[in-house]
Amino acid sequence: MKVEKILQVKDLNISFHTFSGEVKAIRGVSFDLFKGETLAIVGESGSGKSVTTKSIMRLLPEHNSEIKSGEILFNGKDLTKLKDKEMQKIRGHDISMIFQDPMTSLNPTMKIGNQIMEPLIKHQNMSRHAAKERTLDLLKLVGIPKPEIRINQYPHQFSGGMRQRVVIAIALACNPQILIADEPTTALDVTIQAQILELMKDLQKKIDTSIIFITHDLGVVANVADRVAVMYGGKIVEIGTADEIFYNPQHPYTWGLISSMPDMDTDDEELFSIPGTPPDLLDPPKGDAFAARNPFVMKIDLELEPPFFKVSDTHYAATWLLHPDAPKVEPPDAVKRRQNQFNGLTGVSVGTASLEKGSQSQFPGIKEGK
Amino acid sequence: MAERKKLLEIKNLKQYFNEGKLNEVKAVDTVSFDIYKGEVMGLVGESGCGKSTTGRTIIRLYDATGGEVIYDGVNVHGKKSKKQLKEFNRKMQMIFQDPYASLNPRLKIADVIAEGIDIHGLAKSKEERMEQVYELLETVGLNKEHATRYPHEFSGGQRQRIGIARALAVQPEFIIADEPISALDVSIQAQVVNLMKKLQKEKDLTYLFIAHDLSMVKYISDRIGVMYFGKMVELAPADELYRNPLHPYTQSLLSAIPAPDPISERSRRRKSYDPASHNYGGNESIEFREVTPGHFVLCSEKEFNQYKAQSNH
Ligand SMILES: Nc1ncnc2c1ncn2[C@@H]1O[C@H](COP(=O)(O)OP(=O)(O)OP(=O)(O)O)[C@@H](O)[C@H]1O
Ligand SMILES: Nc1ncnc2c1ncn2[C@@H]1O[C@H](COP(=O)(O)OP(=O)(O)OP(=O)(O)O)[C@@H](O)[C@H]1O
Ligand SMILES: [Mg+2]
Ligand SMILES: [Mg+2]
């Protein structure tokens, strides 16, 4: 069903030039976004989720960022090559973005109402009157009480979550084809969060919007995502349907993520957290960037970057553990519980992987490292 | 726990914005609770219900419209000498909700973190100052090399950790953490929460922990308060609150926690809360009442009796 690709990101590489050197923030990211789907991006803080999506919007800081290579195709056009003027038309019209820090996308000296009305008047040629009506509607939709009073207030008079909802209202205003939402609900309580998620799903049903949803809340991912991409150290390390990532994850980083969540019964014991620190992107490690923190590390992880191995038509993971010659390892208990739960529910046992066609097929024999 | 010492007493705290005007907001409306030394008090509730304002008023960022905050026997909002104020500012620290807005963009990270160390003269030499900064960076899962960078060069989660390091730098007794972990990935959340718990035990720190992630709040808090529209509607030991939520708003909140489980999410049912459902009569007095020991609910006499009956089995 979901065949039409609305966005294709191909082998994207992005660096920042900083005082300490070149930060290689994005190192070969590729993914497709299908029409009408929700793709969630999860992953370590600093792994490149925001940079990837900001690059789609062409909103990286001009003075120190550089797209070293890669393409971003939107309806066949390469966004990295568009003139600023053409890009401006796409931004806030075809593609809109909800930013992680609501304060940075709101103008502190401008009344909330005007900030929502402005793009409506500019991009959609609405009259002032119509724009105001629509603004009141949008504020109601995102659950802001007394919008008639609120439109005359300034951002600092709103709570953190209310600001976030204003940003959401602005992003939804133009009925975009692609909505990029960077942590749109982290500042919201779970009841309002649920309302906003419903709202986004409604929009999706109505106008077939495709959504890229970045969040650390795996509960939210489970609620909204059709597919999930997991990022680590400037790369996507695993991608699959929500069920595949939640019930049959393959990458040891994904295993670590899933093991770190407390459930409602976790009590006094210390929470699991992935030991070690993220890779230094000034000088990214050779081989698998996760190797230093991987309890199942093998010699090859330190030498050669793993290709994507195919687990199913929709599920790929970049870890040498999936190579047919790799030793079989036991995933952590939290992951095994999930696999069993899934097998019990579906009666299908989780698949085994094969090497993706066209990728590296021969490599030096794997030996247990460490 | 035998004798528990009250570190903070919050009595009838009120914080109104635009008082008397059309757009008056009773952000905090007659809220009372205590925080015991060494405990983690969680604060949850609807977005805009007054959690941050409560925190900010406690720490004196706002003058209270009414009520009192007593810290270790001293009225926080009373008149004080410069020296007393400075001491207060060191003892109580706040980790802010919006990590971007709260970091000075012109300062290098080392100087952001060391600001408090400098103000309070906590390092004897330049070397000692940098040592402390490096140690703090490591504590929050960043590294030395980050010390010379500027705030805009960091990801959202990294900035949040800088805010935590800055608060820890002055060795406070009491920390108000306003959504300290919501911008972090789950593994680093776990790391920060483990760290906060460890500091709580080792340094006898006390926290007011404001957050939306209810599984994390449950995990870290000893007691939890639930706010709705400026009022505290329920307060109970963490386990008790989740096992036996009494106020319908608390019930609705708990029913909306998304589970990291796509199959159960597909069939999720939420309870919604309508304040009109209480159907209070005009002469009923709505008070914060103790239903079982330590479990308080904002309710009418009639509801109180129902809750009591409900809780006694
Ligand atoms: N303007 C910049 N200058 C230098 N480095 C930057 C800049 N913006 C981002 N980076 C670096 O790029 C990397 C990726 O950052 P990004 O903001 O994409 O992370 P993220 O995955 O969104 O993390 P989070 O979950 O914490 O928001 C980080 O290491 C960050 O320090
Ligand atoms: N400086 C201010 N001027 C006017 N109104 C304000 C101001 N600060 C906060 N408010 C209002 O006070 C109420 C409570 O805000 P507060 O920031 O305490 O909420 P919160 O519970 O922290 O919400 P969130 O979870 O969204 O951060 C809101 O209605 C907000 O609009
Ligand atoms: Mg980000
Ligand atoms: Mg707040």
Automatic annotation (TrEMBL), chain A:
Keywords: ATP-binding, Cell membrane, Membrane, Nucleotide-binding, Transport. Gene3D superfamilies: P-loop containing nucleotide triphosphate hydrolases (3.40.50.300). Residues 346-370 are annotated as: Disordered. Pfam families: ABC_tran, oligo_HPY. Its main location: membrane. InterPro entries: AAA+_ATPase, ABC_Ni/Peptide_Import, ABC_transporter-like_ATP-bd, ABC_transporter-like_CS, Oligopep_ABC_C, P-loop_NTPase. This is Oligopeptide transport ATP-binding protein OppD. It comes from Neobacillus rhizosphaerae. The gene is oppD_2.
From TrEMBL, chain B:
Residues 260-279 are annotated as: Disordered. SUPFAM superfamilies: P-loop containing nucleoside triphosphate hydrolases (SSF52540). The keyword Nucleotide-binding applies. Keywords: ATP-binding, Nucleotide-binding, Transport. Residues 8-254 form the ABC transporter domain. It holds the Pfam family ABC_tran. GO terms for molecular function: ATP binding. The keyword GTP-binding does not apply. PROSITE patterns: ABC_TRANSPORTER_1, ABC_TRANSPORTER_2. Belongs to the ABC transporter superfamily. This is Oligopeptide transport ATP-binding protein OppF. It comes from Neobacillus rhizosphaerae.
